[in-house]
Design goal:
By secondary structure, the protein is α/β, with parallel strands linked by helices. It has 14 helices and 18 strands.
Length: 441
């Protein structure tokens, strides 16, 4: 089998291994054996790797201990090292398996980006050296999350950006699919470490996957999903620890050609197909739920005459990004609210609080919250859903939650106390087969 008329080469497979799948030298050895087996099955393999374990966090921390506001160019020089460590170790491990392999940085692969350091976008993928190495039978290992800018500087693609490297290479090479291998079994309705009853989606289309990524659940990088949709790269999201069926992402007509034999035989349906017992009038079928502990909420309402000053304070304090979500309404004065980590929001809250005892100002600060995010469903009416969800929360004894709908995402900001139990109860209500909201079909 070789390149088809559509430019796909059914022998080329791109696999991306996440940081926790490569956290130790032992895990790197296991990945090397995994790749050897795939090569024996006659695949031409490109393995895109993340930094080992928490390396990127540690490097970022190191940078900030040298300089609280590190120059972004230098930050990229440092952060890109994490993936280079993994790529070379994996190539060495493959040599012990007698597998010919070669590692490349993003820049060596010709991943050309724009110049926005720490959050660069891929403009072009040349991949000549990758093609050449594949022709000679080598497994190609690529450092994810990085490229080289038009100004010839090393750039990184934003946290989680290795997924985007993998998808971009799969598109450039015409790979049969791009596999995103992680420490979970696929795209799940919730984190199975929190919710034992979490369920796996067998298939999702690009739009569903995009909505899940927009909600911030982090299973696949948003830009990677957008890139895959644009170039119609079939994605497989599954475990690097075992051969499970995982989740296939793409348009239904593409998936048959792209799927793995194990995935083709899975009988597990998507949540939408198996949820039952619909609540009449409430058409709400989220695809995933995820939970962030340690969240703060800051909400302000300021009359027009004070709005400029408050706006400046908020803009300055949030210039570096990092909020979980924010809502802005400037139609009459300024109404702004945001959720984020207490570390991020607290300094802003402290700056604004002394200004709050003025006429017409509302100031709300909550720093002992958790956020339960439901993604992937844009209902006919958010009002009907938030009504329904408020009742549901009340039935679990929660009366002081804030419900924040946004596009196809609903965030429930709830008291941090016992939020884990609450998350399990919500999962049971919304996602488990006997749940009370189901496919209205
Ligand atoms: N190592 C980088 C990060 O942790 C990139 C990635 O893992 O995709 O964000
Ligand atoms: Mg990582």
């Amino acid at each position: 089998m070789a390149a088809s008329s559509s430019g796909t080469d059914s022998r080329i497979l791109v696999r991306k291994y996440g940081g926790s799948s490569l956290a130790t030298v032992e895990r790197i050895g296991a990945v090397a054996r995994d790749l050897r087996r795939a090569r024996e099955a006659d695949y031409r393999l490109v393995a895109v790797v993340s930094a080992m374990g928490k390396t990127t966090d540690e490097l970022a921390h190191l940078a900030r201990s040298a300089n609280p506001h590190p120059p972004r160019r230098e930050l990229d020089m440092l952060l890109s090292v994490g993936e280079r460590i993994t790529m070379s170790l994996l190539s060495m491990a493959l040599a012990t398996e007698s597998c010919p392999a070669i590692s490349f940085t993003g820049s060596q692969c010709g991943i050309i980006t724009d110049t926005s350091h720490t959050d660069a976008r891929i403009l072009e993928v040349k991949a000549d050296r990758v093609r050449e190495a594949l022709t000679t039978g080598k497994i190609v290992i690529v450092a994810g999350f990085q490229g080289v800018s038009l100004a010839k500087e090393i750039t990184t693609l934003g946290r989680g950006g290795s997924d985007t490297t993998a998808v971009a290479l799969a598109a450039a090479l015409g790979a049969i699919r791009c596999e995103i291998l992680k420490d979970v079994d696929g795209v799940m309705s919730a984190d199975p470490r929190l919710v034992a009853a979490a369920r796996r989606h067998a298939t999702l289309d690009y739009e569903q996957m995009r909505q899940i990524a927009v909600g911030g659940c982090g299973v696949v990088h948003l830009r990677a999903v957008e890139y895959a949709a644009r170039y119609r790269v079939p994605l497989f999201v599954g475990s690097s620890f075992h051969d499970g069926p995982g989740t296939l992402v793409g348009e239904p007509e593409m998936l048959e050609a792209a799927c793995t034999p194990t995935a083709a035989t899975t009988e597990i349906a998507t949540t939408a197909e198996t949820a039952t017992d619909p609540e009449p009038g409430v058409h709400y079928l989220p695809l995933t739920m995820h939970v962030q502990a340690e969240v703060a909420r800051l909400a302000v309402e300021v009359p027009s005459e004070l709005a400029n000053h408050w706006r400046d304070e908020i803009t300055q304090a949030t210039a570096d990004g990092g909020l979980l979500a924010e809502w802005l309404d400037e139609s009459d004065g300024l109404r702004w609210q945001a959720i984020g980590t207490p570390q991020l929001l607290q300094p802003l809250a402290e700056r604004l609080r002394p200004l709050a005892p003025a006429d017409g100002v509302v100031f709300i600060w909550e720093d002992d919250r958790a956020c339960i995010t439901l993604t992937g469903c844009r209902p006919d009416s958010w009002l009907a859903v938030t009504d329904y969800m408020s009742d549901l929360l009340q039935s679990f004894g929660i009366t002081d939650a804030t419900l924040l709908p946004d596009g196809s995402t609903l965030r429930l900001v709830v008291p941090a106390v016992s939020h884990r139990q609450l998350a399990r109860s919500i999962h049971k209500a919304l996602f488990e087969p006997s749940g009370i909201i189901g496919n209205p079909g």
